[in-house]
Every structure is written in structure tokens, then in C-alpha cells.
């Protein structure tokens, strides 16, 4: 679900700077006896300085990267190199000023990634390839540094550390961190389970060896085993656990064959689709909207202008110009239909409703009891009020004997479609007797006190 995905993305970006900061500070504490005096106050000041300067430099650096990429008059193939070079400059500037370079680069990436950039697809493809290359090189290096012959002696202790982290330390930390944010029990449980330890943990395990700490190789080997156990236990069970906890959003459309081509300086994109036999546009009586008329059709080795191509046929490849916000609507037209399983019906509801419909009409049609003050509210207004937070796909509100469900969101986060379930579902029913919400904790405390 979108809320869980956002939490995990924020955590993945903010974890590394904090982990690196804590590892360096603790190593300094172990190797420099003079740093023991006023250690807590010094660590707090250092934390504020590194993260404050890192966030500031990252924000300014992100704006600078956007301006530079959009104004550089260079070949398109050089833009990713320029963006990568500017990211290194941001990292260096933050480090020189005493801030966290890792946090600065992360914030700069957030700013740049949410801004309008020239050649975004070119940048994205290059960054994806560079990321995979860096990960391959990093794991190869770490594998060369590991000493498997030393693992059997430390395996029981390393496994104990891994189990404590997986089943105790992370779940408690996640629950306490998400307690103020009205997160449901199943969402908290999933976030607690997917805390994969990755290559950064192993890299940090190298620091004691580099610093010359006694038993530094022991720390590295333990970190290596903990990461492997985490990847094996949590990594291979993510999808089954997500389905069990109701965190997988079923697809609304089937597979779609789409290719996007950038047009520098234009507000439109050139989008290409291959027509599949069971798509909406392949139906005999289907008439395309005016904004979805193809400009070019490739059929059996021939090129046809959109107006002369006639009805689209399976196997055709069409090219059309569209605004980015309409690409998702095009996907619905050119994709094969998704098979709706019973679990999907329970997730999205039995019927689809317009979010602009008034609650009074829903109450009349489906015999739903509502308060008099709610009659004039639209469905989206009622859901937003009851949820008391930004809506996410799959969020549901019980009303009488039915449930109102957020089926779809627009690009700006507004509720675009509402589902109605005639019978309450168990999608959000807690699967584990753990992770009580803040209100449940408060009620238990009151019962204990009274």
C-alpha cells in the first residue's frame, strides 16, 4: 500500500546516514579515551550539526542540480554524467562543512526527483544501471573480504544476534516510532518484518577493522552473517507476509506493453503501445477518445497514419502524443483486463462509486444509516474526515453494515474512486495480537489505573 511504501522509502533513505553517524561516533568512543568526557552532550551536538547541515546543503544542492540539468547545453548522453558529478559535489560540500554527505545526497535526490527535469527517462535509466553496477561491485568486494572458514565458530552467537534483531529489537523500535502516526496494526507488522539488513551494514562492519579495534574481524564476520540471515529469512518471505497482512494492492489492469519517448521542451510525450487481443481498443465497437487517437500505426511491416489506419487490430503498434497525466488512462485502454479474484473484490469492494456523490444518496440507495450532519457531505469529504489523514488506496471506513473503500487516487492525492463493500471485510483486521495503536494503549492504561 502507498502509506507503507512511503514509510519504507523514507526509512531506507534516512537509515544509512544515521547508521554511519552512530558507527563512527561509537568507534571514536572506543578508540579515543579522551572522548568519554561529556560524551552524550557531544554526540547530541554532533548529530544536530551533521543532520542540520546535511539537510540544508542537500536542499540547496537539489535545487542547483535541477537548474544545472535544465540549462546545460550539452548532449543528452552527458546529462546523467553531469547530474552524477553534481551529486558528488553536494556530498563533498556537506562533508567539508561538517555535515552528513549521505543525507545531503539523499535530500538532493528527493528535491531533484520531484522536480521537472530535462530528459528524465535518460537520467533514470543511467541511474538504475549505475546503481546495479555499484551494488555488484560492493557485494563482490565484501565477498572477497569475508572469511567463511571463521564462520562456524561464531555462527551460534551471530544467529542469536540476527534473531534478536528480527523478532524483538526492530518490531519494538518500529512500533514505538509509528505509534504517533495512527498506523494500523497490520501496517506496523509489515514494516517491522521487512527491515532487511543490506550491504551498508556489512560496510559498517569494516570500520572496526579499519580503525584497528581488537576483534574487528569478529565484528565484520558477525555483521556478514546477520545480513545473510536477514536476506534469507525476511527477503524470501516478503510477498507471502504482505499478502497475509493485506498490504498488496491488487492490479486494476492486466499487463500492458508500453514504451515512452521523451520530447525535449514539449509538454507531451510520445507513447507507444502494442495492441493485445483482449484490450479495450481491440473491441469492434470501441471508439477512442479524441485525445487518444494514434498519430502512427505500424501494421504488418507498413506505416499508416492514424486517420487512415481504421480500427486497431491485435499486433498493431501505435504511437500517439499524450500529456504525462493521461498515460495512466491510456494504460487502461491498451492493457488486457485483469482477472478479479475474490480477494481482489474484498479489497476494492463490490461496487464503484463516484467520490462526488453525496452521502444522502448513498444512504438512500444502500440503506446506510448516517448522521443528519453528514447528509450533504460528498463521499471523498466524508472519507477524509473519518480517516483523519491522507487517504491511501485500500483505506476503508465502516458505515452501518457496509464499508466505504478508497479505490483509486488522482495524481495530486485526491480520492478518484470509492468502493462499496456490502459486507465488512477482514482486510485490516489485525493478524497478530501485537502492535496496539495509541488509542488502544491509552485505553489499556486507563483500565489499569482505574
Description:
By secondary structure, the chain is α+β, with helices and mostly antiparallel strands. Among the domains are: 258-334, Alpha-Beta Plaits; 342-421, Uridine Diphospho-n-acetylenolpyruvylglucosamine Reductase, domain 3 (2-Layer Sandwich), CATH 3.30.465. It contains 15 helices and 9 strands. Strand 8 (402-409) and strand 9 form a beta hairpin. Helix 1 packs across helix 2 (39-71), helix 1 packs parallel to helix 8 (199-211) and helix 6 (151-178) packs antiparallel against helix 7. The longest helix has 33 residues, at 39-71. The mean pLDDT is 83.
What is the topology, as strand order, of the major beta sheet?
Answer: 1-2-5-3-4
Low-confidence parts:
none
Morphology: globular
CATH class bucket of the domain at 342-421: Alpha Beta
Share of helix, binned:
40-55%
Largest sheet: 5 strands, antiparallel
CATH third-tier fold name of the domain at 342-421: Uridine Diphospho-n-acetylenolpyruvylglucosamine Reductase, domain 3
- What oligomeric state is this? single chain
Number of helix segments?
15
Mean pLDDT: 83
Strand content range? 5-15%
Q: How many runs of DSSP E, i.e. beta strands?
A: 9
Report the radius of gyration as a whole number of Å.
27 Å
Report the structural category: alpha+beta
Order of helices and strands: HHHHHHHHHHEEEEEHHEHHEEEH
Examine the secondary-structure arrangement and name the CATH architecture of the domain at 342-421: 2-Layer Sandwich
How many angstroms separate the termini?
Answer: 38 Å
Amino acid at each position: 500500500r502507498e502509506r507503507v511504501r512511503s514509510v519504507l522509502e523514507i526509512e531506507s533513505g534516512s537509515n544509512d546516514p544515521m547508521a554511519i553517524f552512530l558507527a563512527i561516533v561509537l568507534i571514536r568512543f572506543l578508540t579515543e579515551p579522551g572522548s568519554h568526557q561529556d560524551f552524550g552532550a557531544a554526540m547530541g551536538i554532533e548529530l544536530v550539526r551533521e543532520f542540520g547541515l546535511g539537510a540544508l546543503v542537500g536542499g540547496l544542492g537539489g535545487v542547483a542540480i535541477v537548474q544545472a540539468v535544465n540549462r546545460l547545453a550539452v548532449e543528452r548522453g552527458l546529462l546523467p554524467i553531469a547530474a552524477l558529478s553534481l551529486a558528488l559535489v553536494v556530498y563533498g560540500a556537506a562533508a567539508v562543512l561538517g555535515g552528513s554527505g549521505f543525507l545531503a545526497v539523499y535530500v538532493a535526490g528527493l528535491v531533484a526527483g520531484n522536480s521537472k527535469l530535462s530528459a528524465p527517462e535518460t537520467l533514470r535509466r543511467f541511474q538504475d544501471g549505475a546503481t546495479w553496477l555499484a551494488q555488484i561491485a560492493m557485494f563482490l568486494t565484501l565477498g572477497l573480504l569475508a572469511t567463511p572458514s571463521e564462520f562456524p565458530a561464531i555462527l551460534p552467537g551471530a544467529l542469536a544476534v540476527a534473531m534478536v534483531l528480527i523478532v524483538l529489537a526492530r518490531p519494538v523500535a518500529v512500533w514505538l516510532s509509528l505509534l504517533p502516526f495512527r498506523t494500523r496494526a497490520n501496517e506496523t507488522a509489515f514494516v517491522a518484518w521487512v527491515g532487511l539488513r543490506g550491504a551498508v551494514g556489512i560496510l559498517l562492519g569494516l570500520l572496526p577493522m579499519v580503525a584497528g579495534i581488537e576483534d574487528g574481524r569478529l565484528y565484520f564476520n558477525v555483521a556478514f552473517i546477520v545480513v545473510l540471515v536477514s536476506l534469507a529469512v525476511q527477503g524470501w518471505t516478503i510477498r507471502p507476509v504482505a499478502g497475509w497482512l493485506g498490504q498488496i494492492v491488487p492490479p486494476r489492469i492486466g499487463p500492458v506493453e508500453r514504451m515512452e519517448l521523451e520530447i525535449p521542451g514539449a509538454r507531451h510525450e510520445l507513447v507507444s503501445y502494442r495492441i493485445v487481443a483482449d484490450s479495450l481498443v481491440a473491441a469492434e465497437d470501441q471508439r477512442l477518445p479524441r485525445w487518444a487517437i494514434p498519430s502512427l500505426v505500424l501494421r504488418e511491416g507498413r506505416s499508416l497514419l492514424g486517420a487512415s489506419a481504421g480500427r486497431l487490430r491485435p499486433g498493431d503498434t501505435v504511437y500517439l502524443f499524450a500529456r504525462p497525466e493521461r498515460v495512466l488512462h491510456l494504460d487502461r485502454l491498451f492493457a488486457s483486463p485483469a482477472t478479479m479474484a475474490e480477494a481482489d473484490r474484498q479489497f476494492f469492494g463490490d461496487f464503484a462509486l463516484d467520490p462526488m456523490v453525496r452521502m444522502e444518496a448513498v444512504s438512500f440507495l444502500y440503506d446506510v444509516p448516517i448522521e443528519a450532519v453528514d447528509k450533504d457531505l460528498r463521499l471523498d469529504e466524508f472519507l477524509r474526515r473519518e480517516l483523519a489523514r491522507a487517504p491511501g488506496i485500500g483505506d476503508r471506513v465502516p458505515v452501518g453494515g457496509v464499508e466505504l473503500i478508497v479505490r483509486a487516487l488522482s495524481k495530486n492525492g485526491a480520492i478518484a474512486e470509492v468502493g462499496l463493500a456490502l459486507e465488512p471485510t477482514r482486510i485490516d483486521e489485525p493478524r497478530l495480537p501485537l502492535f496496539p495503536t495509541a488509542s488502544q494503549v491509552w485505553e489499556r492504561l486507563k483500565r489499569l489505573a482505574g
